[in-house]
Write a structure and sequence with these properties.
- Strand 4 and strand 5 form a beta hairpin.
- By secondary structure, this protein is an alpha/beta fold.
- The protein has 25 helices and eleven strands.
- It is globular and about 85 Å long.
- The strands form four sheets. Strands 6-9-10-11 form a four-stranded parallel sheet.
- About 50% of the residues lie in helices and about 10% in strands.
- The chain has a domain of about 260 residues.
Amino acid sequence: MTRIERLKEATLRRTTAVALDRARLVTESYRATESEPVILRRAKAIAHFVLNAPLRIYDDELIVGDRAWVQPYSFNYPDMWPKRVPTASDPAVAAQLKDIWGYWLDPKVVAPTCTTLKGHCVPGFAKLLDVGFLGLADEARGSLAAIEGCRTRIPSRTESRPGMDSSPTIVDRADFLRAEILLAEACAALGTRFAVLAEAGAAGATGARRAELLRIAGTCRRAPGLPPRDFREAVQCLWFGQLLIEAEDAPNGQSPGRVDQVLYPFYRRDVDAGRLTRDEAKELLACLWLKLYAPYDVHDTMVGGLRPDGSDATNEISHLILEVQSEVGLHRQLSVRYHKDMPQDFLAKACDVVREGLGVPQFFNDDVLVPNLVESGFPIEDARDYAIIGCIEMTIPGRADARAVAHYSNLPECLEQTLADGFCPVAGKQVGPKLADPCQAESFDEFFDLYARRVALEVEAGVRTQTINEQREAETYPMPLLSLLTEDCIQKGLDISAGGGRRFASMYCAVGIPTVADSLMAIKRVVFDERALSMAALVEMLRKDFEGHEDFRQRLLNSVPKYGCDEDEVDLLARRVAAQYADELARHRDSRGGKLCAAYFSFTACVSMGKMVGATPDGRKAAQPLANSLCATQGHVGNGPSELLKSAAKTNQRRALGGTSLLIDLHPSAVRRAGDTDPLEAMIRTYFSLG
């Protein structure tokens, strides 16, 4: 077996013991710092964990550090989810849990109850590889000196100095920068800890493994504190950065981003100097791939795309990553950026990986997304550098605070409240205000306006809730480590959660667009066009969940045009529903002044939110799932993927800066290459050409 085969086997066989290291150490630090500012408490807690967590180096490893130090997640983040109290059958573990969670559940302890989906970022790993954590610490010292006006200590909140502005703003900025310095130094020390561990291992090893451990030690003497000098140090530094970000905040979509762009300069220099072969680089990338896989893999690695000058960015690392995915064979969040001038051989290789059946890579269209970002106010250089967070959400690596999935809007519920004038049949009570009797609508457009009013109320409620959440989290759950790796936070002296980043946006997800479009089509057809049913009769039928009306339900299911079948009338209703949601978001800003960006994406909310919605006019019964993202309603796939692709293209995805998702399951025979003809490649090119 090769090294990678052995590491893969060990990765798949490895079980995670219940360890409470993060929970224990973070709580220990918080107990010792109760009189200090929140930002310093937060930084000291993460630093205490990084400096004291147990470390290990496994056999065959070339890249070290693993997520076992924060496993299992539900047991290790009481500071994030204090009300999610885990249980354990082991008496010793149960006793530790009681002690730890007893602290966080104490009413006197200021702790957040996180209601937004944290994580979801692409840190500035390019900057980390450029200066290292010690370089970031130096930048923070420079900003601290600029604030105080000289290289002396800023007075505390209880002190004063003649001529010195000791307002809370100045003091808070100083506290933040002190937090950045101590945390950056702790992160740098992680490498030293691994170097000591590797040297100890080498003392008892022989032959090739001894040499490998000594090389690991040398690598970790620099990474992640100092800028890497070669490809190996760069890969290790990037992985340490990923591990550390997840130590601060529970793994949840934190993504390494455009790894091919970040690592390529180191690869090119080493190969040109004869210090590295292509196969050696591939082995190191495979080691990184296994690290990224286990035991959590919802974080996106993106390859291809554009350089800042607009030229194609595909490089040898882009190709190597596709090869590693193919050969390692584990599911990972891998994305390919498509544009009309991308190299043919790279697209062909990406399609070959898709054919292996693991659902990766996913494809994103630069020809639409880059102009979208520019039209929304992003500089062209930033727009060309976008990357994906977690699933499908966009950000600018290291420069933007894009609040992914900040809010889910249940659009079928908005339609339901339009029909029932605020009454929820599932809950059996009035949940929204009474606005207007839908039976009084004299035209379909008048009815759509009533629906739009409900959507406006839903968005307003979401903005109010999210604003409260963001303000509370800025006060109780700052992110000093992510701030280190986000441009302008150090310069401003502000944590990213308080608006320290350079660009801001919040993604609001429209759930159930196809369900609403199909339902509106049914209302238009049977109530307004054909007059086959009164609005009152339809409302009553829905209230009864079609009981006694199965024949008419079948008519709604099978005789009314459905989204996903390339029928303009209903597809343009889907476009109208999506555009109305995007228009409503454009009226608002988030708590940092960032735009609210529409995402046509439901993740798993199409199931959970479906349980909250009664029967809908498209024939769907109460509590059944809603349509997933931009996919057709379950059971209505038309005459193949081409029709669905054309329907989805009509939704005008240029309005969805937050991202869109279209999932298609294809039989292997449908995408099998035949000579020079690749049906999968043709499908991708055709769909993206439609915009």
